[in-house]
Amino acid sequence: MSVFTPLPESTLATWLRGYAVGRLVELKGIAAGVQNSNFFVTTTLGRYVLTLFEAIPRAELPYYLHLMAHLARHGLPVPAPIADRDNEYLGTLEGKPAVLVMRLPGQSVMAPGEQHCARVGAMLAGLHLAGQSYGRRQENPRGPAWRAATATEVRGFLPAEEQALLDTELAFQAQVDSAALPAGAIHADLFRDNVLWDGDHIGGVIDFYFAGHDSLLFDVAVTVNDWCATADGKLDAARCAALLTAYQAERPFTAAERLAWPAMLRAAALRFWLSRAADHHLPREGEMVLVKNPDEYRDILRHRIAAHPALPEV
Amino acid sequence: MSVFTPLPESTLATWLRGYAVGRLVELKGIAAGVQNSNFFVTTTLGRYVLTLFEAIPRAELPYYLHLMAHLARHGLPVPAPIADRDNEYLGTLEGKPAVLVMRLPGQSVMAPGEQHCARVGAMLAGLHLAGQSYGRRQENPRGPAWRAATATEVRGFLPAEEQALLDTELAFQAQVDSAALPAGAIHADLFRDNVLWDGDHIGGVIDFYFAGHDSLLFDVAVTVNDWCATADGKLDAARCAALLTAYQAERPFTAAERLAWPAMLRAAALRFWLSRAADHHLPREGEMVLVKNPDEYRDILRHRIAAHPALPEV
């Protein structure tokens, strides 16, 4: 969505007096994001992004903000939240929960090559390794419980063959046991539009507001499904190899992960098919969500069921 | 000094496995700094600076590292220390205390104009405001006790007229009561070579290893003595006005600070005259310190005694 909450400059200028970031120079709405209002904020001392949370409950926000702070502290290009003069990350602006974060350099690359995929694989492994020492825990908000509830909501809107696909996949996923898989804090939405490229390097990994505790391999699968897909939703072997090889150079996959890989690709595809179907069939009133085509992830799911891709050998 | 401790790439590559910053790509010594060995470190995931501490006692380092982390957390362009996988900032490399910090963009500007001075004034105020909520405390390592001890050491090397200047100034400073001045964490060495300019903006404020708890006004005086001096050591009125006006827009000076300003400029000049005289007359064995000319700060001290500059009105 674009900016939801209009924000007068004078209101922001006053609010910023609670921080040590200098005076407001420029305020600009950002026409992106799917559940928050975002603004570029330039002050006399730096460049920041301001987010007003429109939908996420306030109690869930500290997990995300402290995760971002934790990963930035470990040297990764993640938007570090800015503490106010009382040392708090989470504030209130125009009656909404609000946070100021560092603005990171770069632009998204929507047609990535093997080099991009290799760097994303290494970065994802870095996020997972750094996340292992993160002390807070909040379940993946798009995990099994959400999946079951959302499937129930959207099923009636689907044509018969898609209902059959959904039923089969839900039954399959219910049998997957992920207890043996390494888990931790995952980004869970590392799509191409959430990575900013500063030349050949990753200048920023953004939008942690779907993060949560889950299998690390699920995060890898979400990432591969987006970065390594062909236009029709199949996997591009060269990009897959580049991403996965770079990842496992930092964190080798376990035997359990090798077994679970095909199922995890399907679980990741199902998650985005469901959320897009819900956004499509059950739009929330008053929101200008950019509704993405659910068919893309239905097709990706079908391709992942048909194929049985393996993780590359070390 | 240049790099003191030679560091083989293979040693660093192994050491970096304790972090989540990816693989070593490039290691380059930095020919600058006066008491540490510094290196540019590029990895697959980012750009960092590595510092090996050659002289500062290990027990004093957490104050500096947590101060840098605190200020970075408040949105200021300070080199944030990187935590290793055990969440620790301070490590050991080649037997020395070692820290990895974020590399910040920009270059020093050695002939600053009024615009530069205004930005530095605002930044210094930002550092002071953010520093107010810093929980640790360590006295300024170049405070009154150091001043007295160093004066005793160097006095005998000075010609008679400089001994007289030193005696008079020490007696004057002994009468200054700074108890009424606002205090907090100060940088204490915000010279032109410790500010990196990224275009017109400050991309980095570096080298916090002289920081400590002291009067905020002392920090302002150190900064003005360097940024606003003419070639012969006098104060440039326009640059002073720019720096101090920008500073007090963020943190207005108190009445006690207005009274103390001339004495504080002298205290700041004395501090650098003494340290340079000590480096000149008492070089530490085996160190390749770039010895700066002590006469520059002797002359600055004389000019500050002769003049009685006032802080600008609000």
Automatic annotation (TrEMBL), chains A, B:
Reactions catalysed: L-homoserine + ATP = O-phospho-L-homoserine + ADP + H(+)
Taxonomy, superkingdom: Bacteria
Keyword Kinase: yes
Assigned keywords, A-Z: Amino-acid biosynthesis, ATP-binding, Kinase, Nucleotide-binding, Threonine biosynthesis, Transferase
Pfam families in the cross-refs: APH
Family to which this protein belongs: Belongs to the pseudomonas-type ThrB family.
Protein name: Homoserine kinase
Gene symbol of the encoding locus: thrB
